[in-house]
């Protein structure tokens, strides 16, 4: 019997099995493209707050400040870095699935976009997990943190806010972080991990582009100026992880405007001015 969209997505979202979740996420995307997941909404109640998606017992979740930093000169240090990225990708599967499951007033193109993202995040997770195993480790062998899912909880009331703060902030920071990591790994001769990050980086540009598209589309539908809205949301949600180096080329490819990039470059000053009511 053919399932419908929301039970299938909910099953993937709530799966705690590290083999099953990526498989189910990819399956949802494939079945949607094949027309096998109609959007019947009577099989589940309306979306409710989801305190936590399905996740395995390990890794242990700690505060972001308690995640130890290890040097990359050792195999364990490189594995710790790969584990941290794999943990981001595992959480990103949940974030993409939740966008589909929760925001049911959005059109089919939104569903298709975020199921594609979920499937690509699943692919990324599996690639990184395989690399961990090649180094003698596995997902769960290091600690992780829960800040990514906390942003999902904080934005579960409004799809526009979700699009502003998850792909345009959290995922976009990945565009900034990956090239310097690759440079360090290449210097150590870890070409296998560099190649994996190449593929992830290219996909993530598309994910941020999807977020940019839906954020601006939703702003337009509501008669809101996107840049002013984004700046205010950064203040309202006390976003403080935008300082540091930016990958301007990747952000342009993902749809950030030149004016917005200038604002990000001077982010600390922008926040002070807005906070003062200027």
Keywords:
278 residues, 11 helices, disordered C terminus
Structural summary, described in words:
This protein is an all-alpha fold. It is built from eleven helices and no strands.
Compact description:
By secondary structure, the protein is mostly helical. The chain has helices spanning 5-14, 20-33, 75-102, 108-134, 147-154, 159-187, 191-222, 226-236, 248-253, 258-265, 267-275.
**Main beta sheet:** none
Order of helices and strands: HHHHHHHHHHH
Structural class: mainly alpha
- Helix segment tally: 11
Which parts are unreliable, with pLDDT below 50 for 5 consecutive residues or more?
268-278
Give helix % range.
Answer: 55-70%
Task: Explain the layout of strands and helices.
Elements: H1 5-14, H2 20-33, H3 75-102, H4 108-134, H5 147-154, H6 159-187, H7 191-222, H8 226-236, H9 248-253, H10 258-265, H11 267-275
């Amino acid at each position: 019997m053919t399932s419908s969209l929301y039970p299938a997505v909910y099953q993937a979202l709530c799966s705690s099995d590290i083999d099953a979740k990526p498989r189910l996420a990819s399956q949802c995307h494939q079945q949607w493209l094949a027309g096998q997941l109609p959007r019947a909404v009577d099989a589940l109640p309306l979306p409710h707050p989801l305190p936590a998606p399905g996740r395995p017992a390990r890794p242990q979740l700690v505060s972001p400040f308690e995640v130890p930093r290890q040097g990359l000169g050792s195999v364990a240090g490189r594995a710790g870095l790969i584990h941290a990225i794999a943990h981001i990708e595992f959480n990103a599967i949940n974030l993409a699935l939740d966008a589909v499951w929760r925001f049911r007033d959005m059109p089919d193109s939104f569903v298709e976009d975020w199921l594609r993202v979920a499937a690509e995040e699943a692919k990324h997770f599996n690639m990184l997990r395989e690399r961990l195993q090649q180094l003698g480790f596995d997902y769960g062998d290091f600690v992780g943190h829960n800040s990514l899912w906390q942003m999902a909880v904080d934005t579960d009331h409004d799809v526009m806010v979700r699009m502003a703060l998850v792909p345009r902030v959290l995922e976009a920071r990945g565009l900034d972080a990956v090239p310097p990591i690759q440079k360090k790994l290449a210097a150590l001769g870890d070409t296998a991990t560099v190649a994996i990050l190449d593929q992830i980086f290219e996909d993530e540009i598309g994910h941020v582009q999807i977020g940019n598209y839906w954020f601006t589309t939703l702003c337009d539908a509501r008669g809101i100026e996107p840049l002013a809205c984004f700046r205010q949301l950064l203040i309202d949600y006390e976003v403080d992880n935008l300082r540091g180096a930016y990958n301007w080329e990747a952000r342009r490819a993902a749809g950030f405007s030149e004016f917005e990039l200038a604002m990000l470059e001077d982010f600390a000053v922008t926040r002070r001015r807005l906070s003062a009511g200027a």
